[in-house]
Specification:
With 778 residues, the protein is α/β, with parallel strands linked by helices. Helix content is 42%, strand content 15%. The two termini are 39 Å apart. The structure holds adenosine-5'-triphosphate. Keywords: ATP-binding, Helicase, Hydrolase, Nucleotide-binding.
């Protein structure tokens, strides 16, 4: 049998030989073009180097502006060549052959702008190719400014992605070119106007291969995501190039390319309006695993540094959370009810003694040679008045200080002593000076109105009795207990492991507390201050109020565009956190309600609406599943029907002919998982993901030791957005039972594989004789 195969592989038929000949010729043609591109780039570098050299030799020849321009040219050319040589394996990846355009107008990239062909471009099924464009990751112009390569994001490249046989526009043939370094390795063609196959210009237009998409989808997966720049599909391209105004919302099932599209959109926006977006695009991702998986995509598109990809647990500076609360706790922490609790906590924290001390209930000072005292009630009243403002608690401290001085001044009878306003102001200034330089007063203030950090307040919430005062009428006693217990991980200063949901609470507290004031720089007393009584409200460091506002805004980071991936998973509190980072931003929000692990979609929807504000929204839907073969998608659809009855699943674009495997775990679950993972490692070339219930995540880490780094184990919530050549989904019923959104989490787990899926049933799955779990039977 093997010998027979070898023979048939060696002897090619005549048509095969002819096809090989055409393929070689076409590869040769593309190689020729690529060589030309490289020659041109080298030329540009030499040109730029020469200019620089020349400029240096001639000293100050030319204006400084011209010299800077030359340097910039050298710099740009250098970057081009560097990228070409090192980063971009397939720098030049596409070509379109186009009919004559309707109006004959050309755009800035030298290509015809019209999408539609001229009326007489096709006559009696004959036509001429009027234009051939090569598409690449960056644009290159020839010496005569004709386009050698068009940037994939340029308008002229759009037909490469948008043309379909139903609406081909001017495109006759679309070609994907595969290359490595400077060598063209292959070409794959789609003929979009099959009627012109043999009649173009009187000659055949050769068509090679089955199209690039299938080739891309069949490739083995690694631990990092690839860009899809050479095979973006029309419905995806519409999203990528949607105008940036307002909010772009994208929904689509698993594997429809939402993440890929969102990242390509970031690159597109930067290309479109670099000035506006440079340094200001934030991509919010649900997990650090997904950040690690996707962060290589933008550099591969030539965009590095301008886009911040952050996991929800790392959005707040200094916090790096990747632990998960148990579902019941996560539900409390994520709910918008927490806002009320945190508001009370931020203010109530002032009343909690710090560092083993007490909150003082009286203030005694000596001023003008007399003792003046404020008692508990007076202090309480002052606190309430100060807290009457809506400003953040730390920023109300100067107001409280001022109110105390006022009260002391009144008590000391200061106001009565002077009738002349000028004298009164002077005396008051001296009084304030006396009081505020007393150590006792400073110690009192530090204890009575301490500057609070978000972490400290969070830690204070770990005391159940105290927390109960802040959760009254908002959380029930059981919820209060769960919340307090989960925060017990933190020490008195709030140090300790944070959960992903804690981070949104920290961010909310930061807003409620305000940044603690910086150490004051002693400054000359301004007589006007005394008169207006405003000095305490003036900011530190000699900043104006406006400067301070700007500094605070900058510290918070306001982005120009915010992309939210897996948006269905954001809790209301997380929406508030993300919303604060995009108050003036345009947005791209991608997600799939069917994959939501949040239990109350309506509550999250309201928070999302609030974060996005009243900006107009443009909605898109992606309908094709590029990840899962039909056999896997079909199985997952059974869970979808249970999780979200009536929700349509996306149609899978390919099929492998291999149905999912069902196995039943033996008494030693670890051994069963290992055996299944091993099987799959033999079956596929790339990665294997083992998805376990969250509760088994810790124990499962040891199960696969020694199997190599192609296989990874992850908790069901961590599987979000990731994909593997093959997956083992362990004990589906346990995953489904783990939280109110468990069925949707299971749907996510079942849709991670690009080739093979094994379902390993446990006892709770009630497998039938074929090992099929109850949940997955028809
Ligand atoms: N046009 C395309 N060409 C080639 N591959 C594609 C294309 N669109 C999507 N893919 C591939 O399909 C897979 C799924 O894409 P992606 O992860 O972006 O989907 P998703 O909608 O975010 O999925 P999920 O909702 O499950 O997280 C990826 O491997 C991606 O590279």
């Amino acid at each position: 049998m093997a010998a027979q195969n070898a023979t048939s592989a060696q002897v090619a038929t005549e048509p095969e030989k002819a096809a090989d000949g055409i393929r070689d010729r076409e590869i040769g043609a593309e190689q020729h073009h690529l060589d030309r591109v490289y020659r041109r780039l080298e030329e540009k570098i030499h040109e730029a180097e020469f200019l620089m050299d020349d400029a240096a030799k001639r000293g100050q020849v030319g204006t400084p502006g011209a010299l800077a321009e030359r340097d910039a040219q050298v710099f740009r050319a250098g970057i081009h060549l560097n990228r070409l040589n090192s980063e971009f394996e397939d720098f030049l990846f596409g070509r379109i052959d186009l009919l004559l355009g309707k109006d004959g107008k050309k755009g800035p990239d030298g290509a015809y702008t019209s999408v539609e062909p001229a009326d007489d471009a096709v006559r009696d099924e004959r036509a001429e190719i009027a234009e051939t464009l090569h598409i690449g990751r960056i644009g290159v112009l020839d010496a005569d400014y004709s386009p050698l390569v068009i940037d994939w994001r340029a308008p002229a490249a759009a037909p490469f992605y948008r043309a379909t046989p139903v609406a081909p526009g001017r495109v006759v043939r679309r070609r994907v070119i595969r290359s490595k370094g400077r060598r063209v390795l292959g070409v794959e063609d789609d003929l979009l106007r099959p009627e012109l196959r043999t009649t173009l210009d009187g000659e055949a237009l050769p068509v090679v291969g089955d199209g690039a998409l299938m080739a891309a989808l069949g490739q083995a997966r690694s631990h990092t995501m690839r860009d899809i720049v050479s095979s973006i599909q029309a419905e995806q391209d519409l999203v990528i190039r949607a105008p940036a105004a307002s909010v772009t919302e994208v929904e689509g099932g698993p594997g429809t390319g939402k993440t890929a599209v969102a990242l390509h959109r970031a690159a597109y926006l930067l290309y479109q309006d670099r000035r506006r977006y440079a340094g200001g695009i934030l991509v919010v991702s649900p997990t650090p695993l997904l950040v690690a998986y996707t962060e290589g995509v933008l550099p591969s598109l030539g965009e590095e540094g301008q886009v911040a990809i952050r996991a929800l647990g790392s959005l707040v500076d200094g916090a790096e959370a990747d632990t998960y609360d148990e579902p019941a706790v996560a539900r409390i922490k994520g709910s918008s009810r927490m806002l009320k609790v945190l508001r009370k906590a931020a203010r109530g924290a002032l009343e909690v003694p710090r560092d083993g001390g007490e909150v003082p209930d009286r203030l005694r000072v000596v001023a003008f040679g007399a003792r003046v005292e404020l008692g508990a009630e007076e202090l309480q009243r002052i606190r309430q008045t100060a807290l009457g403002g809506t400003a953040p608690v730390n920023l109300l401290r100067p107001r409280a200080r001022r109110l105390i001085l006022d009260a002391l001044w009144a008590k000391a009878g200061g106001a009565r002593r002077y009738t002349d306003p000028e004298l009164a102001a002077e005396a008051r200034a001296a009084f304030d000076e006396d009081v505020t330089t007393e150590d006792d007063f400073l110690a009192f203030l530090a204890a009575w109105w301490p500057e609070l950090t978000p972490r400290q307040v969070l830690a204070l919430m770990a005391d159940e009795r105290r927390l109960a005062r802040w959760t009254r009428r908002v959380l029930n006693p059981r919820e209060t207990r769960l919340l307090a217990r989960s925060l017990g991980r933190l020490d008195g200063d709030g140090k300790g492991p944070l959960s992903v949901h804690d981070v949104a609470l920290l961010d909310e507290l930061e807003t409620l507390l305000g940044a603690p004031a910086r150490p004051r720089k002693p400054r000359e007393a301004d007589p006007l201050d005394q008169l207006t009584g405003l000095e305490e409200l003036m900011p530190e460091r000699g900043e104006t109020r406006r400067e301070r506002a700007e500094r605070l805004a900058q510290e918070r980071r306001d982005y120009a565009h915010v992309i939210v991936d897996e948006a269905q998973d954001l809790t209301p509190m997380q929406w508030r956190m993300v919303g604060r980072r995009g108050r003036h931003a345009t947005w791209t929000v991608v997600g799939d309600p069917a994959q939501s692990s949040w239990s109350d979609p309506d509550e999250a929807g309201l928070a999302r609406d609030e974060a996005l504000g009243t900006r107009p929204r443009r909605r898109f839907r992606l309908t094709v599943n590029y990840r899962n073969p039909a056999e896997i998608a079909e199985l997952a659809a059974k869970v979808l029907a249970l999780a979200m009855p009536g929700m349509e699943s996306p149609s899978a674009v390919r099929s492998t002919g291999v149905v999912p495997r069902f196995a039943v775990a033996g008494p030693d679950l670890a051994a069963s998982v290992r055996a299944e993972a091993r099987h799959l490692l033999d079956d596929v070339e790339g990665t294997v993901g083992v998805v376990v219930p969250m509760a088994r995540r810790a124990e499962a880490r040891g199960w696969l030791a020694g199997l190599g780094d192609r296989v990874v184990v992850l908790g069901s919530l961590e599987a979000k957005g990731l994909e593997y050549d093959a997956t083992v989904v362990v004990t589906p019923a346990e995953i489904a039972d783990e939280s109110p959104a468990g069925l949707r989490v299971l749907y996510v787990a079942l849709t991670r594989a690009t080739q093979r899926l094994t379902v390993l049933a446990g006892e709770r799955d009630e497998p039938d004789a074929d090992g099929v779990p109850d949940l997955l039977r028809d």
